[in-house]
Amino acid sequence: MKFLTIAKQSIIALRANKLRSFFSILGIVIGVAAVVIILSMGQGLKGLVTNEMNAFGPNLLDVAVKIPGVSQTQSVASMVQGIKITTLKTKDIKDLKDPKAFPYIAAVNGQAIGQDWVVYGNKERRVLVYGCSPDYPKIVKTAKLASGRFFNDEENDSLAKVVVLGSNLANKLFDQENPLGKNVRLKGINFKVVGVLKPQGGMMSSAVMDMNEFVYVPLEATLKELLGIDYLMEMHIDVNDEKYIGRALSDVSRLLRRNHNITDPDKDDFEIFTMAEILKRVDQVSAILNLLLGFLAAISLLVGGIGIMNIMLVSVSERTREIGLRKSLGATANNILWQFLIESVVITGTGGIVGIIFGIAVSTLVGLVVRTQGLPDWPLTVSWLAVFGAFFLSAVIGLAFGVYPAKKAAQKSPMEALRYE
Q1: What is d(CA 129, CA 42) in angstroms, rounded to the nearest whole number?
Q2: Phi, then psi, of 132 in degrees rounded to 5
Q3: Could you give the CA distance from residue 391 to residue 114 in angstroms, rounded to a whole number?
């Protein structure tokens, strides 16, 4: 019997049980669509994080404090529990900005963050006070001024009471009023508004930490007037050229060890990360996350495959007399096997195609919604690896879970099948 004839009979059998075929296909559609959507969303999230990291430029060095003699992970866990490292000082910034010793360093930013109330007139907001160096806009490329200016080195060194406001904070405190030249109060101290930043999108404006709600204060004033401390939480260094990254790592480490009286590198109280290392960690986390989510989504495909096997077994039982009749008319066991196998593959193939189309449509729609709701850098990404992988997996499931019912049908005796009621 020709293959096309067998395939035609398979289609006729599926059409005869439309509702059963529909629900079988639906299970595969949901599984395939879930794989495509989840992995595409994971790809989009990775792209968003990468875009955000690129906003700092490829030549950034991030200097983070850590507990001497332990890994960064253990150090972070300990600091979450309340341990503080107080050895990173503003002197480190001043030394790093020496053009003779570090001619390849373009900018250095020190960071200290606290929380306080900012007051203007009868309005007040609980905000994050971001103490930073005048070089901050050179480090964070997305920090663009909408009006006014950023504070300078002289104002930072002299403890000048000036601030720059995030765009959302300026709108909430001043409405339509021009904030430049006005005074806001922090800890009862008047600070003059000298600038307002443009809105920063992407993860910079997330619900967890919206940098558009920050009040940016000169680092020295933040430490001495607002936080009452003399140490930094972090430093960022921008290198002129990528070719100087290796040299910068060595020179900066040497300077910090000298300033912090460290003779054994294993006892460093700091760790320096390059942008390449940060992006590598993002890739590793993204790969693990995608693998986990893809595995969870693939479980729904497996469930759909089990459902197909159950339905095909029921179909074999219901069509026992049909099988016997066909065998008595000359159909071989292989003809019967291929008919039921083709039915299974048609179900999973159709479900796979529909699931892919649905998954791509939903992924694109979700990407558009996310971009319009405050994350404009979210890439409209469809994971083609997920598309082809999901379709291949659905075909394999169709074959794997269709073999047993097909073999059971092929092995039926014609005489017993014809006597079946």
Answers
A1: 32
A2: -145, 165
A3: 51
Which of helix, strand or coil describes residue 267?
helix
User: Over its length of 421 residues, how does the chain's per-residue pLDDT go in tens digits?
Assistant: 465 665 666 666 666 677 777 777 787 788 888 888 888 887 777 777 777 666 666 788 999 888 877 666 665 555 555 567 788 999 999 999 999 999 999 999 999 999 999 999 889 999 999 999 999 999 888 889 999 999 999 999 999 999 999 999 999 999 889 999 999 999 989 999 999 999 876 555 554 567 889 999 999 999 999 999 999 989 999 998 888 888 999 999 999 999 999 888 888 888 888 887 777 777 777 778 777 777 777 777 777 777 777 776 666 666 666 666 666 666 676 777 777 777 777 887 888 888 888 888 888 888 777 777 656 666 767 777 777 777 777 777 767 766 666 666 656 555 554 554 4
Contact present, 122 and 131 (Cβ < 8 Å)? no
Nearest to 418 by CA among 318, 312, 328, 317: 328
Conformational region of residue 82, where left means phi above 0, alpha means psi within -120 to 50, and beta covers everything else: left
From 35, 9, 41, select the one nearest 304 (Cα to Cα).
35
In one-letter notation, the amino acid at residue 232 is L
Residues 6+ apart with CB under 8 A from 73: none
Structure tokens at 334: 């292989």
Residue 97 to residues 13, 54, 100, 184, 378: CA-CA distances in angstroms? 79, 23, 9, 31, 35
> At 380, is the secondary structure helix, strand, or coil?
coil
Report how far Cα 421 is from the mean position of its chain's Cα atoms. Answer: 58
**Does the global pTM surpass 0.70?**
no
Q: What is the DSSP string of 164-204?
A: EE-HHHHHHHHTTS--TT-EEEETTEEEEEEEEEPP--GGG
- Residue pair 115/130 in contact (Cβ under 8 Å)? The answer is no
Contact present, 27 and 308 (Cβ < 8 Å): yes
CB atoms within 10 A of CB 411: 11
Torsion, Cα 241 244 248 251, to 10 degrees, reads -140
Helices vs strands, H then E, count in the chain: 14, 10
Alpha-carbon span 27 to 19, nearest angstrom: 13
The DSSP secondary-structure symbol of 151 reads -
Tokens at 306, concatenated: 């089990």
| Cα 303 from Cα 166, distance rounded (Å) | 50
